[in-house]
Write a structure and sequence with these properties.
Strand content: 5-15%
Strand order of the largest sheet: 1-9-8-5-4-2-3
Low-confidence stretches: none
Number of helices: 14
Bound molecules: pyridoxal-5'-phosphate
CATH topology of the largest domain: Aspartate Aminotransferase, domain 2
Amino acid sequence: MRKLAILGGEKVRKTKFPPYTPIGKEELSAVKEVFKSNVFSRFLGCWHEDFFGGPQVQASEKEWAEFFNVKHAIAVNSATSALYCAVGAIGTEPFDEIIVSPYTMSASATAPLIYNAIPIFADVEPDYFGLDVDSIETRITDRTRAIIVVDIFGQPYDAGRINALAKKHNLKIIEDCAQAPYAKLNGKFAGTLGDVGVYSLNYHKHIHCGEGGILVTNNDELADRLRLIRNHAEAIVEEKGQSNLINMIGFNYRMTEIEAAIARFQLKKLPSLVSERLENVRYLEKGLSQIPCLEMPRIRYDAEHVYYTHSIKYIGQASGIHRNKFVEAVKAELMPIELRETEGIKVGCGYAKPLYLQPMFQKHIAYGSNGFPWSKSGKNYDYSKGICPIAEDLHFNLLITHEYMRPGMTKEDLDDIITAFVKVWENRREIGG
Ligand SMILES: *Cc1c(COP(=O)(O)O)cnc(C)c1O
């Protein structure tokens, strides 16, 4: 038995893992064309044909809409901006309640606050980690306006049941699909399962252009309002003859021509990048599923998962040691990913700390120092520990997430990942198991 690296033994892996670099020469030549054209952006913040952006932005939107089989795509500068646009466009009123997931990237839960609405946390599903329909139902009140669902880790939300619940209560669904481009449910693309969908093009995601985001919707009126909020709505509503002024303050969330040119080529590569990811996951799971304390991710009926992260459930009873100890030992066997060295070893205990436990929610400090908007809402909002027990258990005890299944990993690289987990499993007694 080889000695565990955490106890001073030799690491399974001594060199860095290959970087994930989906951007290549096609994107470079597209960027050169943008340079030649000398048009780096062509948005005008007044009512003019250029209100909707330059040729690359408009072409990327058209191609995105065709690819995902949806009527409108609207390019913005991040998925965070996209979420803010979406919350505004659906007509959110101050003190409306918007149901969100605690187990996601922070912007999917803070977006309601931008329009002075209140984020209400529902719990997640123990097996698929998306918002749980029964928990959502317990959170609905006469103030509920919308649900922000998240296709977490690359798997579509429970659209069948959550959409039906939303319809019954006349709620809008904003789908945060930042982690699941090309995932499907019942043959339909994730991102297009709710009223408005949001994709991210930041450099952590399946495809990217540095920073960027895309909104999609089949609703003409929503699309119009999203485009307005993206580009200084307030400056043009009069000339445009816009009668619905709700949430038309507007921002500058415009995407540049360079980002759009890169995004266009990235979209063409999405299917092959996803299929390489799936192949890597299949290979890893063959090796990892033999370890009794690991449970491979489950896939919802009729869903196609695209594995933004590979999220494994850890069965503490099977191993006799806490997940954190196990993961620390696995990390000690491995090395960082090239170009992402600063992020350390990409194996994690849990994912995001349940968001209501963050100081902003714990202390009710968002706008100013007096607890606005909560303090003026006329209600008490409880963000205490325990309100979403499943999310807490996943984060603090059960979930292991890693990113060593990205395209660019060779079979030998994947073998090292498997070997590291197997080595720790076999030697767990050395660290107290
Ligand atoms: C990455 C991510 C975002 C934010 O994306 P940006 O483009 O960086 O703003 C939002 N939601 C989820 C679930 C994400 O993973």
